[in-house]
Specification:
alpha+beta; Ubiquitin-like (UB roll); five-stranded mixed beta sheet; 5 strands; elongated
Length: 368
């Protein structure tokens, strides 16, 4: 359920970002074209239902990221996981102030009607630093979403056909948006060659002060929550007196604290290990064969059982991303090549099943 919520809320935020980026890309033509299409791209999110879905997705997705941080047994992770995780923690403090700021500006500033012309005027002339923050919002949200989208969809059967179309779009859309933002800014500056930034006064100054105060309050509250989660995680993992000793067949020997999953231990100790879904328990590429174990291993959960059944795993096979080694020596054999390509997934699994059947036939023959 948690996994499904993360995927759904992530897709909502990615669609929100995609619409904004496509709208910005129209700035390559003109600011007028951006504003004429603004209603089309913003319509799904400006109605009461869409606004609720968007805000709920932001809060839920960020909350699940914090929960994931609390549940992590180790903060050592792969580079792609590190990038996505760090960017995920940044989404809420940089995106919600942007959305709330526009809403408050509409309510507090008399006669203010959001438009790209007014926003670009503010970002490029009145407050360029705020314009840089908008670029940061786009970069953070897009990279975080793109990593998640590619991780999830590249496991689907249709990816081999559509991936060649989607992959270029992952680059073309944000680059076009940034170029559109620059071209639109140049147009705004050209239309106001002698404009000087002014110091707001009266009701305008009060409204902008209120907006700034609300934004920073939200950011500081979020930072406090992250610190609390980190402290809570430290309290959870600090007392680990036991050691897990992992012997990888045809690989290294790892001595580590009990707690992290087998895949987390492999990553932390630079042991190459397949995991196309990056430890989400979906792909089955991280499965290992249990050769021997000094202690009884914990039973697989529902997620692990479902994936093992899906890939027709043998009775002595487990998912490294779900298995938490116990105290003592555990000997395992990695079954999938560490650097497997998604397009080779089916053929690799077929070979594993064939090898398993040969072993079963061989054992049956020896018994006879």
């Amino acid at each position: 359920m948690i996994r499904s919520i993360r995927i759904i809320t992530g897709l909502v935020l990615f669609l929100f970002a995609t619409g904004h980026l496509l709208n910005l890309a129209l700035g390559l033509q003109s600011v007028e074209l951006m504003d004429s299409w603004r209603g089309f791209f913003s319509a799904p999110w400006t109605n009461p239902v869409g606004s609720l879905v968007l805000l709920g997705s932001m809060i839920l997705h960020a909350s699940l990221s914090l929960y994931s941080l609390y549940r992590r047994n180790t903060l050592k992770m792969s580079p792609s996981d590190m990038v996505q995780f760090a960017l995920g923690l940044l989404i809420l403090p940089i995106l919600i102030p942007h959305v709330v700021g526009i809403k408050l500006a509409t309510d507090l500033i008399p006669g203010y009607e959001p438009s790209y012309k007014s926003l670009l005027h503010f970002f490029w002339i009145q407050n360029p630093l705020e314009g840089l923050r908008q670029i940061l919002v786009l970069v953070v949200l897009w990279i975080h979403g793109a990593i998640g989208i590619l991780t999830y969809f590249r496991l689907q059967g249709w990816w081999a056909k559509l991936g060649s179309i989607i992959n270029p779009l992952i680059v073309i859309v944000p680059v076009s948006a940034l170029l559109g933002f620059v071209e639109a800014g140049k147009e705004v500056i050209a239309d106001n060659p002698n404009y000087e930034p002014f110091e707001p006064e009266g009701a305008l100054a009060e409204a902008l002060s209120t907006i700034s105060s609300v934004k920073w309050s939200m950011i500081w509250v979020y930072i406090a929550i992250v610190l609390i989660v980190l402290v809570a995680r430290y309290m959870r993992v600090r007392n680990r007196p036991y050691r897990a000793l992992i012997q990888f067949v045809d690989g290294p020997y790892v001595d580590a604290e009990v707690g992290p999953s087998l895949l987390e231990l492999a990553i932390a100790n630079d042991v190459p290990h397949a995991s196309l879904c990056r430890g989400r328990g979906r792909c089955g590429t991280c499965r290992v064969q249990i050769i021997s174990s000094a202690e009884g291993l914990p039973l697989p959960g529902e997620l692990e059982l479902a994936t093992l059944q899906k890939v027709n795993a043998g009775p002595d096979e487990r998912l490294a991303c779900q298995l938490q080694p116990c105290e003592g020596l555990l000997t395992v054999k990695r079954l999938v090549p560490p650097y497997i390509d998604p397009k080779d997934l089916k053929s690799t699994f077929r070979k594993l099943q064939s090898d398993q059947q040969k072993e079963i036939d061989s054992s049956a023959g020896a018994s006879a």
